Amino acid sequence: MNALDIKDLNVWFGEGLDRVDAVKGASFSVAQGESFGLVGESGSGKSTILRAITGLAPTWSGQIEIEGQALHGARRDRTFYKTVQMVFQDPYASLHPRHTVDQVLSETLQLHGMTDIDARVEKLLEDVGLGGRFRFRYPHQLSGGQRQRVAVARALAGEPDILLLDEPTSALDVSVQAEILNLLTDLRSEHGLTYLMVSHDLPVVGHMCDRLAVMKNGEIVEVMDKATLRSGAAQHAYSRELLGESLGA
Ligand code: ADP
Ligand code: MG
User: Which residue has the higher pLDDT, 97 or 75?
Assistant: First the structure.
């Protein structure tokens, strides 16, 4: 059974003349434990695919299956959020400014029906390389990288199987991007996680992902594995163009 099966997914916003077809006929599968990338220029529909999966893009057609279970409409039940969690691009926007790290994590753990909250908060902070001394800090007392670590800890609180990562490092200083990517790589192997990761940065995806889909204007133009990406053997002209750009060619 795959972690994720997407078949002929269409996602649109608005109606009539205002309608924007953000994703058109996208199909791909992500195996359990796999790390799968979505790449493509800004506006190509990458985030919209993640948002459709989590229920944040209400109008879609086609099939979305999570661990063999088909999703219907925009409603997502509690089991879903125990299976799938999303990490957003901007840790500044995704954390409440008046909540301490402890509040953020304790409340999330409670929502997931967890017990032993105290011990779990400590463990989560340790898992993301922060440790207990960060526990009672507010977001403004943390660096961008530390905030994204808290956002990752929050995503892990319910012990999900699948993380949807939407450009998880692109709002961070270049110097801390690699740290967070390495953390994500370690967490995937330690927790047996499956990743669906959006990035406009091909080297990042080449480093982090086993396979990737190249998107253009809402469509997937090519799915390839890491070896194909690295050897520059992409089939589609657009993939080669994107690849050439990112290699500075
Ligand atoms: P990417 O993540 O690849 O940069 P997005 O998935 O955010 O692209 O956007 C894909 C397209 O859908 C863009 O044309 C964008 O303007 C449009 N879009 C995204 N969200 C909305 C929305 N809430 N309402 C209307 N159009 C949207
Ligand atoms: Mg996006």
Answer: 97
Rg of the chain over CA atoms, in angstroms? 18
Q: How far is the CA of 187 from the centre of ligand 2 (A)?
A: 23
Residue-wise burial string across 216-237, b where 16 or more C-beta atoms lie within 10 A, e elsewhere = bebbbbbbbebebbeeeebeee
Can you give the pTM of this predicted structure?
A: 0.94
Expressed in angstroms and rounded, the spacing between residue 46 Cα and the centre of ligand 1 is 8
Note the pLDDT tens digit of each residue in 166-188.
999 988 988 899 999 999 999 99
Give, using CA atoms, the residue closest to atom 23 of ligand 1.
13
Q: 34-49+77-246: which CATH topology?
A: Rossmann fold (3.40.50)
**What are the domain boundaries of the chain?**
34-49+77-246
Compute CA 51 distance to the chain's CA centroid, rounded to the nearest angstrom: 10
**pLDDT at 108 exceeding the cut of 50:** yes
The three-state secondary structure class of 60 is strand
DSSP state letters, 192-220: T-EEEEEES-HHHHHHH-SEEEEEETTEE
Residue in this structure with the two tokens 């709002």, named with its chain if needed: 171
